[in-house]
Design goal:
This protein is mainly beta. The chain has one helix and 63 strands. The chain has three domains: 253 residues, YVTN repeat-like/Quinoprotein amine dehydrogenase (Methylamine Dehydrogenase, Chain H, 7 Propeller), CATH 2.130.10; 341 residues, Methylamine Dehydrogenase, Chain H (7 Propeller), CATH 2.130.10.10; 79 residues, Immunoglobulins (Immunoglobulin-like, Sandwich). It has a four-stranded antiparallel beta sheet with strand order 1-28-27-26, with no helix packed on it. A four-stranded antiparallel beta sheet has the order 2-3-4-5, with no helix packed on it. The chain has a four-stranded antiparallel beta sheet with strand order 6-7-8-9, with no helix packed on it.
Length: 808
């Protein structure tokens, strides 16, 4: 309705609408036969990729899904630019279980010959031109069913099939498959009644190999498959993936209810616990999940049942599934995820009703968690997950209050209320520990803002959507109890509170949208025990349809401002007693002022992904365009904050480019005339800074996961870019540079230095923290950077220096 909900909608749906073409690049391997589904992918290196395809129809009475002999293999040796296709003589009808390659010439494939040949393992040594049947694995033509073949190198391999003669059928080879030896039944636990494996459902980490079954069990061997043990996953069926010898997922698709359940192990599969932090509460079918080598990342592809939010999606988690971010939503159904490293990955299109047999190359940002050098992550520890930060107030370097709530776009009246999860977190030790409280605002409820004056005393305002309307609550015991202050005479039906603020334990103000033709503003001189409405003749009249936004106000001394949806700024120089109003020159938006009475008004065009800025240097009376916006304003503003006592501004934005980072932090030292990006990867909203070194931000509501708060831990925001010169001597060479830059820092004592490299547009291209005694030599690789002018900044806690660098 009136509060700043368009921001909330943005964050709830952001990643669903902006990353459609930057994650996967489609390749058609060029089969002469249309509409083949990918059955398996094997990656050798960045250039050599093998994939197996076949075609199925549920028509065969015996096997249920064979239709023809279209068992095909494709291969690229140049990263997908060109492809060669090969026919594999498995049988007619045929079913491919999996494909395993070790180089561009050597590969094995296994599957079922439905024409009476049964299970088969075939090998090529000439790049796929010819395939030789390996008969040493003595699968029975009538009763065996092969599930996978795997090779550690050209000699050591294993193949596994469903139970025969009361035992799972496992064979090993030490000569590339010329001879296969069946693993004795006393080396592998007995199957339970009706138990079998799935094609391609196995994992290998070093010498350890696992396979899963339709009974939700996991078999594990530490010695290349010679000896086995079995464990219960806790789910009735499903598939799995292991990231190392300890961590793994087991997932079960409930196809009838369009639901996925997932368990997680931290001990190699011996014990499993429920993962209750799946995105969208698991209301999807899982296609595939894959741990990314050389990274903490886990990537997952899913099938959703919503045409509005996208049927097919790609997700990533960097914390064992505790929190997920959507990378992509597309029109293609992708499975068989395989990654070699954070940059090299492929997937295959599952068989569709029509269309090409597409393969997809990962072309997104490297799947490595961007460890921020300036934002320190804090989880306040709410019992309920996935709350978004609504407001944050920093009292001093130790005491911080933050309000959180949960929203969903489903309420017919207010549009976004969902429940009574109005929570407050408070720390009095700089974020080491947090006290959690619940505010009885209402059900459903919406938080406008929180304001505090010490570690015990705070006020919170918001809307009780259950009929109670606007409310103000106060705590004097650090949130243990919250008392409703009833003397601010809000009308339960038409009032809408936007903020509450206190200058001292006694002196405060609260403001709401127009009622009876005037903005609704109340004063208190006794901590909120009594509130008195400011007379309408002291406030300029609102325009038709004009209202304020929650938490959209600023205070410098006794001067207070609030903004409106008409792009206007109301200002009072006497703590809200008398008001005047000014035009910002923008149609809508939000703002912030600094202690020097300079301010920025910003407007976000969500449809075009564009931000406009205007600046005032007279407290909001007049405004002019700010044309020096980074990237020409092609981003969505998250938050903007003036640093007290300076012309320095810190700004957080959302970009629509995975290549350059979705979430970024920028700094300007000169009222927005020039900008420098100092961080990327951290989604920060509702910042509050009380000095150049003390500031916090809150994470908006995401699709799932913890309700993070972020503490600023970077260099002084005024000292980072100007004021003092760096005492240490800095030299760089070569310059111009082609492949790398050497940075030499010569100081007299042990110190820590922040190194930033920004391009000509201010975008952060490289960052690192280095430390040492006396002499430090640091190398920055720049081979992949575009040619042009770059700025290198080296700073410590006392000062900084910059150098211009040319990339040839």
């Amino acid at each position: 309705m009136r509060a700043k909900f368009y921001f909330l909608c943005l964050f709830l749906g952001l990643n669903m609408s902006m990353l459609t073409s930057q994650t996967w690049q489609s390749f058609d391997p060029g089969y002469p036969d249309p509409n083949l589904g990918c059955s398996s992918i094997s990656l050798v290196n960045k250039n050599v990729v093998w994939a197996a395809h076949s075609h199925y129809t549920v028509t065969d009475s015996l096997f249920g899904f064979f239709v023809d002999s279209l068992a095909r293999v494709t291969k690229t040796t140049d990263g997908g630019t060109t492809w060669n296709q090969y026919f594999v003589p498995i049988g007619n009808p045929a079913f491919i279980a999996n494909l395993m390659a070790i180089d561009e010439n050597t590969a094995w494939i296994c599957g079922i010959d439905g024409g009476s040949g049964g299970s088969k393992v075939l090998k090529t040594s000439d790049g796929g031109q010819n395939w030789d049947l390996q008969t040493g694995a003595a699968y029975d033509p009538s009763s065996s069913w092969v599930n996978f073949v795997h090779f550690w190198n050209k000699d050591f391999g294993i193949t596994m099939g469903d139970p025969r003669d009361g035992e799972f059928e496992v064979y090993t080879t030490k000569d590339g498959g010329v001879q296969w030896t069946r693993v004795s039944g006393d080396h592998i636990p007995n199957p339970i009644s009706g138990e079998f494996g799935y094609n391609g459902d196995y994992e290998v980490v070093g010498n350890t190999i696992w396979f899963g079954t339709n009974k939700g069990r996991i078999f594990r061997s530490y010695d290349f498959g010679e000896n086995w043990e079995v464990f219960e996953s806790g789910l009735p069926d499903g598939s799995f993936d292991m990231g190392d010898n300890l961590h793994g997922f087991f997932a079960y698709n409930d196809f009838d209810n369009f639901k996925t359940k997932m368990n997680f192990t931290r001990d190699g599969g011996e014990n499993w616990t429920e993962l209750n932090t799946l995105p969208e509460n698991g209301n999807f079918w899982l296609n595939d999940i894959e741990f990314i080598p050389e990274s903490d990342a886990i990537i997952m592809t899913t099938v959703n049942n919503s045409l509005i939010t996208g049927l097919f999606r790609t997700w990533v988690s960097y914390n064992d599934g505790a929190q997920w971010t959507i990378l992509d939503h597309s029109s293609d159904n992708m499975g068989w995820l395989k990654f070699l490293d954070p940059e090299t990955g492929w997937s295959g299109r599952l068989q569709a009703l029509s269309g090409p047999s597409s393969l997809f190359k990962y072309v997104g940002q490297p799947l490595i968690k961007n460890e921020s050098l300036i934002w320190e992550e804090h989880d306040p520890g709410y019992a309920v997950p996935n709350l978004g930060c609504s407001s944050i107030d920093v009292v001093n370097k130790d005491v911080v209050w933050s309000a959180h709530a949960h929203y969903l776009v489903n309420d017919s009246l207010y549009g976004y209320f969902v429940d009574s999860l109005s929570r407050v977190a408070r720390t009095m030790d700089g974020g080491q520990t947090w006290k959690i409280s619940q505010v009885p605002l209402g059900n459903p409820a919406f938080i406008a803002n929180i304001t505090a004056i010490d570690a015990n005393t705070a006020w919170l305002c918001g809307i009780d959507g259950g009929g109670g309307g606007s409310k103000i609550f106060k705590t004097e015991d650090a949130g243990s109890t919250w008392k409703h202050q009833t003397t601010a005479a809000w009308d339960p039906q038409v009032s809408w509170v936007d903020f509450v603020h206190f200058w001292s334990p006694a002196k405060g103000i609260t403001m709401g949208d127009p009622r009876e033709g005037e903005f609704e503003i109340y004063h208190t001189a006794n901590g909120g025990q009594f509130w008195t409405r400011v007379s309408g003749d002291k406030i300029p009249d609102p325009l038709p349809g004009e209202f304020g936004y929650n938490n959209d106000f600023d205070v410098v001394g006794n001067t207070i401002w609030f903004g409106t949806n008409k792009g206007r700024i109301y200002r009072s120089s006497n703590s809200g007693t008398n008001w005047e109003v000014f035009e910002s020159g923008l149609p809508d938006g939000s703002f912030d002022f600094g202690s020097n009475m300079h301010g920025i008004f910003y407007y976000v065009d969500f449809l075009s992904f564009k931000t406009s800025l205007r600046i005032s240097k007279d407290g909001g009376t007049t405004w002019s365009n700010l044309t020096t916006i980074p990237e020409d304003g092609n981003f969505r503003m998250n938050s903007l904050e003036y640093i007290s006592g300076s012309n320095t501004i810190i700004m957080t934005t959302i970009n629509n480019s995975l290549t350059h980072g979705v979430f970024r932090t920028w700094v300007s030292k000169d009222d927005g005339e020039t900008w420098t990006q100092i961080d990327e990867g951290t989604n920060v909203l509702f910042m509050d800074f009380i000095s150049p070194t003390v500031g916090w931000g809150g994470q908006p509501q995401m699709l799932n996961g913890p309700s993070y708060l972020y503490k600023y831990i970077g260099s002084s925001l005024t000292g980072l870019l100007d004021i003092h010169s760096l005492e240490a001597t800095v030299e760089i060479y070569p310059n111009p540079a082609d492949h790398f830059i050497n940075v030499q820092i010569d100081g007299s004592n042990f110190n820590e230095f922040l190194i930033l490299l920004n391009d000509a547009q201010g975008r952060l291209m490289y960052k690192n923290t280095v430390n040492g005694i006396d002499f430090i030599n640091h190398v920055i690789p720049i081979e992949k950077f575009s040619s042009g002018l770059y700025t290198l900044t080296v700073s410590d806690t006392k000062g900084s220096t910059t150098r211009k660098v040319i990339k040839q």
